[in-house]
Amino acid sequence: MRVHLNRPTDMLTRDDEVILLYSDEAIRLDGVSAAIVELAAAPIGLERLTRELEARFGAPAGSTILDATAAAAQELGDRGVLLID
Question: How far apart are CA 85 and CA 63, in angstroms?
Answer without folding.
Answer: 23
